[in-house]
Amino acid sequence: MTETPATTPAAAPVFPAGRYGRRREQRRRRPWLVVAALAVVLVIGVMIAYSEYQKYGDPAYDAEVISYTDVTDTGIVVHFRVNVPADGSATCGVRARNRAGATVGSEEVRVNGARGGEPVTVDHRLTTTERPFIGEVLRCRANS
């Protein structure tokens, strides 16, 4: 009894000479090019992250909503506290939303820093298009 192999090894194809044109030669690999491209992408990513952090994520301008009062059909008073560097100023985005979560009013409020860098408490009346359910501070950033 003879043994039959289950698979036969694939042989490399043999092409007739001159029929399919010239075969490509193997290209030289350039690993330094891949490393350089990754380094450039990394540096650009870090620059974008730093820029966005300076614009939106600076904890020196951290805001905290204390409360919101005087809720009427046309407005709300938002009480909030902002950390502003001494003799600096900030712009804070304040908004009000209705029960469904839709924005019914928003404004940007300028806040001037206190001497000594103490947190500043702000009471701002926000005009709305309908009765608000909540008032909030979206973010604060340095004035540019």
Automatic annotation (TrEMBL):
Superkingdom classification of source: Bacteria
TM region positions: 32-50
Pfam families attached to this UniProt entry: DUF4307
Keywords carried by this UniProt record: Membrane, Transmembrane, Transmembrane helix
InterPro entries linked to this entry: DUF4307
Transmembrane helix recorded as keyword: yes
Protein known as: DUF4307 domain-containing protein
